[in-house]
Amino acid sequence: MRNADRRTVIAGLGAGLALAAGNACAAPRGRKIGYAIVGLGSYAELIMSKFAECEQSRLVALVSGTPDKLKRFGEKYGIPESHRYSYQTFDRIRDNPDIDVVYVILPNSMHAEYTVRAAQAGKHVMCEKPMAVSAAECRTMIEACRKAGRKLMIGYRSRFEPYNRLAIDLAKKGFVGPTQIITADHGFNARPNQWRLDRALSGGGSLMDIGIYSLNAVRYLTGEEPVEVSAVESTDRNDPRFRTVEDRISFLMRFPSGIETTCVSSYSSNHNMYRVTGTEGWIQLEPATSYEGQKMWIRRDGRTEERQVPAGKGQHAGQLDHLAECIRNDTKPLVGGEEGLADMRLIEAIYRSAREGRRISLT
Ligand code: NAD
Over the stretch 96-113, which tens digit does the pLDDT of each residue have? Predict the structure, then answer.
């Protein structure tokens, strides 16, 4: 545990959730926390289906620019017309007391605007990853929610996934000895003609979208913040998918305790794994951060064994109910705006390192 002792554990792990000041955000008791979903794309469709597993959260309103979607999902989930909004009528959510939280599931460049507007309408916010397209936008979002006295949480669902939680716990305890190295690879083969490949909407390529899972994982597995980053980008600019965004970017980070992490982010190869290597063995998850189907192997004492974790509440319902609990109890979300900002600051440093071809010090 010698290295672990020196680590700053990411705020909120386990029972140590810090209490937020005041009680201005408490929602009415006796009913579930009401969510409005903004942006009815593919991930929103999955999220809408997950309210059925929630104990403390319910879907109460929809926001979309497409009337057909409002009708289709409105009818499917029993959302009355009075609770269906367009982007133009969005600000009227202020007058709807059934809505406690706005869940922003729009293209990345729209996260900041809708978070700020939701906070100004007096609502708490759940915002998808990446939190925004720049650290400056993240700061604006945090400030808007602080000023409005509302919670802000980022959709880092893996923190509510049992295998990832166990991996964090085992790494923290030094189960395979103090962590020395972490490798984390995330990527998929991006289909052409989508907003993710348009920098104006995505803010960047694979790193913003999928590499952020590698980045966030090494932060939650070490419980530390990196002190140095170096990155190399590899993009075929003749591939029409990559006119404005990067394909592959590999980055190496050094942490205060001496841990080194090597991460791959890619839009042209398919992987989803991480391995935490300690002095006595390793812990591997593959897939690590998918919606389901996580598998874990542990190598220790010269033997490799698969470890199974009882299926608990799903990560999506866990994430939705966590914010509901934070609102109910006026506590700080495990993955608040500061967590999204920390990743975005690193994303900016990774891009800078790749662009300038040098190591970037973060101290
Ligand atoms: P998507 O393309 O399926 O949906 C985007 C939605 O935004 C669509 O309903 C679209 O109509 C709407 N939209 C509004 N204005 C738009 C514009 N100008 N251009 C394009 N679309 C516009 O995308 P998605 O996969 O649902 O991703 C949405 C967000 O959710 C992204 O921030 C993404 O990173 C995040 N996401 C998170 C996870 C996760 O596991 N946490 C998974 C997938 C996506």
Answer: 999 999 999 999 999 999
Read off the pLDDT of residues 250-300 as tens digits, 9 standing for 90 and up.
Answer: 999 999 999 999 999 999 999 999 999 999 999 999 999 999 999 999 999
**129 catalytic residue (yes or no):** yes
Look at residue 311 in the predicted model and tell me its pLDDT. Answer: 84
For residue 9, pLDDT beyond 90? no
Q: What is the mean pLDDT of residues 48-52?
A: 98
Q: Which residue ranges have their beta carbon within 6 Å of ligand 1?
A: 39-44, 65, 105-108, 128-129, 155, 157, 195, 201, 209
Count structural domains, the chain: 2
DSSP 182: E
CA of 203 to the centre of ligand 1 (A): 13
In a domain, 339, yes or no: no
Q: Please identify which of the residues 35, 114, 213, 274 carries the catalytic annotation.
A: 213
Range of 41's domain?
3-154
At CB < 8 A and 24+ separation, what contacts does 114-119 make? 114/38, 114/90, 115/141, 115/144, 115/145, 115/152, 116/140, 116/141, 116/144, 117/90, 117/91, 118/38, 118/93, 118/150, 119/144, 119/145, 119/147, 119/148, 119/150, 119/152
What confidence tens digit (pLDDT) does each residue in 156-196 have? 999 999 999 999 999 999 999 999 999 999 999 999 999 99
Task: Collect contacts of 289-296 with beta carbons under 8 A, ≥24 apart.
Answer: 289/158, 289/161, 289/164, 289/186, 289/213, 289/217, 291/46, 291/315, 291/316, 294/161, 294/162, 294/163, 294/164, 295/163, 296/163, 296/166, 296/167
Q: What phi and psi, each to the nearest 5 degrees, are found at residue 298?
A: -125, 130
Residues 294 and 258 in one domain: yes
CATH of the domain at 246: 3.30.360.10
Distance separating alpha carbons of residues 358 and 276, to the nearest angstrom: 26
Write out pLDDT tens, residues 303-334. Answer: 999 999 998 889 999 999 999 999 999 999 99
Residue 32 · residue 58 · CB < 8 Å: yes
- Domain-located, residue 222: yes
